[in-house]
């Protein structure tokens, strides 16, 4: 079951967001439309726009502006995917060829820029300064997170704290912006707005932790990208950081050298080390703790089916396989 199918009250709104997104990919340049439609229609769950809808509804919102707001969040997310795949030289996403693999790096970057620009056009139409402030701040932090990740690439001395700062920026900030902006649109009181902001932050961190676990667990068919992609790019994610901390001297040396070098020459022994040192269970436990914090944060919200759905989605985040 897709996340938006958990609550029948949200499905018509979710469908309206999909229609809105597709209707706002128009451009006088055909290549912009082609790439935009390709990446938007490539099978993502659209979890971030769903969070906008649920947050607004959980706070009693009765208007229609949460539809374009959800589209804004999805456009920003899609733009970051286009840029990320270029930076990482990725060839597979969600089981399909990446846009840069099909059309090249330059068109992918420029269409990503187009989607960023379109999202800000829509925000101006929404006309809520508080939302513009949150999202403009979030996009700045996301860019900083991406740069920090680039600086950490092929650095085996990356600390757990530095790694958490990366995922807070590059992943969790957009989750946080999605839920907080839903609350702003609903004119939620400060307590409920803060609760939803924290929910989004903790959920985003958990989501990325699980992503990083799957890089050492799943087949490419299950998760829609190549197994070992993070290792190939020299990314010291939490499973590797824990493996280096708990492994023997020889295991630590092997992992450190693999991160420095990048590539997949040592993938099999690295997988064995990750499993032997309990790195998978450790990272999953950290994700579970973040989910528990996310759920606790919104217990201050009034009880309704939308709050329940937010609970369910948080639990699903640590149980997913792709």
Task: Draw up the topology in text.
Blueprint: H1 11-23, H2 30-40, H3 47-58, H4 66-87, E1 92-93, E2 96-97, H5 99-103, H6 105-126, H7 129-152, H8 160-185, H9 190-214, H10 220-223, H11 229-232, H12 238-246, H13 249-261, H14 267-276, H15 279-297, H16 305-317
Antiparallel strand pairs: 1-2
How would you describe this protein?
With 322 residues, the protein is an all-alpha fold. It has one domain (10-317): Orthogonal Bundle (Farnesyl Diphosphate Synthase), CATH 1.10.600.10. Helix content is 72%, strand content 1%. The protein contains 16 helices and two strands. The protein has helices at residues 11-23, 30-40, 47-58, 66-87, 99-103, 105-126, 129-152, 160-185, 190-214, 220-223, 229-232, 238-246, 249-261, 267-276, 279-297, 305-317; strands at residues 92-93, 96-97. The chain has a two-stranded antiparallel sheet. The longest helix has 26 residues, at 160-185. Mean pLDDT is 91; it is low at 220-224. It comes from Marinobacterium lacunae. Its cofactor is Mg(2+).
Number of domains: 1
Number of helices: 16
Shape: globular
- Uncertain segments: 220-224
Termini gap: 13 Å
Approximate helicity band: over 70%
Order of helices and strands: HHHHEEHHHHHHHHHHHH
> Which structural class matches the secondary elements?
mainly alpha
CATH architecture label: Orthogonal Bundle
Question: In this structure, how is the largest beta sheet organized?
Answer: 2 strands, antiparallel
CATH topology name, in short, is Farnesyl Diphosphate Synthase
CATH level-1 class: Mainly Alpha
* Overall strand count: 2
Strand percentage: under 5%
| Name of the CATH superfamily | Farnesyl Diphosphate Synthase
Give the rounded overall mean pLDDT: 91
* Major sheet strand order: 1-2
Determine Rg (CA atoms, Å): 19 Å
